């Protein structure tokens, strides 16, 4: 597969990142994942604007404009000859001898271009099981930071329990998944955690809230408890790679009928129309 590192497109296997790279040593950087459907990077502008916001939040100056990044992504996709792809893009505080304070170094930019790993229609039709776990992350979860250790640990604990995802709980309320946003549906109303500092402001989340408005489905961006989720009629996750994915079981509790419900199915179908 193809990669980009600090100005050059190279085969992924041949890129070597210097040991004193701050992404490597400190996780000192931010990232995005963009899905490409039939040659078109989906919601690319939105992802790149979020990247700019994440960079600003960690006081990292973006080495490229959104337009320049769009051009680089298109160039990478052309070079990689990929139509259905996932683009990973990260920006770090660069290469410098390991000291915590900011170095006097230009940021590093890396990207990979890989065939997309979409979930199968069987998974969408069946829905997934999730595990409720403590949200042990920091207080700035709106920043798409490279520091994913709590997310990695939560995802692995969920996987160890045979679950697709960990749904996280902080101070008695459901925040989001380890790599997804989370929703509960009760009496036809969709509930999801408000877009504050405790969750990542998902690009898919924003698109799905738009889709819900178009469908006349009421959404409340409100706190809800794990108990509320367990008693929901439907529940679902959203992310760039998982799109709109029904939760049919939370730990030992079956949600609704145990199958993706009507609201999840409507939202996913309408979301897919956006992909076009
Ligand atoms: N929350 C977290 C913690 C994530 O890592 C992700 C995936 N980037 C999401 C939510 C979903 O965000 P998006 O829809 O932008 O992919």
From TrEMBL:
<dbReference type="InterPro" id="IPR043131">
    <property type="entry name" value="BCAT-like_N"/>
</dbReference>
<dbReference type="InterPro" id="IPR036038">
    <property type="entry name" value="Aminotransferase-like"/>
</dbReference>
<dbReference type="GO" id="GO:0008652">
    <property type="term" value="P:amino acid biosynthetic process"/>
</dbReference>
<dbReference type="InterPro" id="IPR050571">
    <property type="entry name" value="Class-IV_PLP-Dep_Aminotrnsfr"/>
</dbReference>
<dbReference type="GO" id="GO:0046416">
    <property type="term" value="P:D-amino acid metabolic process"/>
</dbReference>
<dbReference type="GO" id="GO:0005829">
    <property type="term" value="C:cytosol"/>
</dbReference>
<comment type="similarity">
    <text>Belongs to the class-IV pyridoxal-phosphate-dependent aminotransferase family.</text>
</comment>
<keyword id="KW-0808">Transferase</keyword>
<dbReference type="GO" id="GO:0046394">
    <property type="term" value="P:carboxylic acid biosynthetic process"/>
</dbReference>
<dbReference type="GO" id="GO:0047810">
    <property type="term" value="F:D-alanine-2-oxoglutarate aminotransferase activity"/>
</dbReference>
<keyword id="KW-0032">Aminotransferase</keyword>
<dbReference type="InterPro" id="IPR005784">
    <property type="entry name" value="D_amino_transT"/>
</dbReference>
<dbReference type="InterPro" id="IPR018300">
    <property type="entry name" value="Aminotrans_IV_CS"/>
</dbReference>
<keyword id="KW-0663">Pyridoxal phosphate</keyword>
<dbReference type="InterPro" id="IPR001544">
    <property type="entry name" value="Aminotrans_IV"/>
</dbReference>
<comment type="function">
    <text>Acts on the D-isomers of alanine, leucine, aspartate, glutamate, aminobutyrate, norvaline and asparagine. The enzyme transfers an amino group from a substrate D-amino acid to the pyridoxal phosphate cofactor to form pyridoxamine and an alpha-keto acid in the first half-reaction.</text>
</comment>
<protein>
    <recommendedName>
        <fullName>D-alanine aminotransferase</fullName>
        <ecNumber>2.6.1.21</ecNumber>
    </recommendedName>
</protein>
<comment type="subunit">
    <text>Homodimer.</text>
</comment>
<dbReference type="GO" id="GO:0030170">
    <property type="term" value="F:pyridoxal phosphate binding"/>
</dbReference>
<dbReference type="InterPro" id="IPR043132">
    <property type="entry name" value="BCAT-like_C"/>
</dbReference>
<dbReference type="Pfam" id="PF01063">
    <property type="entry name" value="Aminotran_4"/>
</dbReference>
């Amino acid at each position: 597969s193809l990669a980009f590192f600090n100005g050059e497109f190279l085969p992924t296997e041949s890129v070597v990142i210097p040991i004193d790279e701050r992404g490597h040593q400190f996780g000192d950087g931010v990232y995005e994942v963009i899905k490409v459907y039939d040659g078109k990077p989906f919601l690319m502008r939105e992802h790149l604007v979020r990247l700019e916001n994440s960079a600003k939040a960690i006081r990292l100056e973006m080495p490229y404009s959104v337009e320049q990044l769009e051009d680089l992504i298109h160039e990478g996709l052309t070079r990689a000859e990929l139509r259905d792809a996932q683009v990973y893009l990260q920006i770090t505080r660069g290469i410098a001898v390991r000291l915590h304070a900011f170095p006097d170094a230009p940021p590093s930019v890396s990207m990979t271009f890989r065939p997309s790993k979409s979930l199968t229609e069987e998974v969408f039709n069946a829905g997934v099981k999730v595990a409720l776990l403590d949200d042990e992350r920091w207080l700035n979860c709106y920043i798409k930071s490279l520091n994913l250790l709590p997310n990695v640990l939560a995802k692995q604990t969920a996987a160890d329990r045979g679950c697709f995802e960990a749904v996280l709980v902080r101070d008695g309320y459901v925040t989001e998944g380890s790599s997804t946003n989370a929703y509960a549906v009760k009496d036809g109303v969709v509930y999801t955690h408000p877009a504050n500092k405790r969750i990542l402001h998902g690009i898919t989340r924003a698109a799905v809230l738009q889709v819900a408005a178009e469908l006349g489905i009421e959404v409340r961006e409100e706190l809800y408890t794990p108990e509320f989720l367990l008693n929901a009629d439907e529940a679902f996750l959203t992310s760039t790679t998982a799109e709109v994915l029904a939760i049919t079981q939370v730990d030992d509790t079956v949600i609704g009928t145990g199958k993706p419900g009507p609201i999840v199915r409507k939202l996913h179908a309408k979301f897919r129309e956006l992909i076009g």
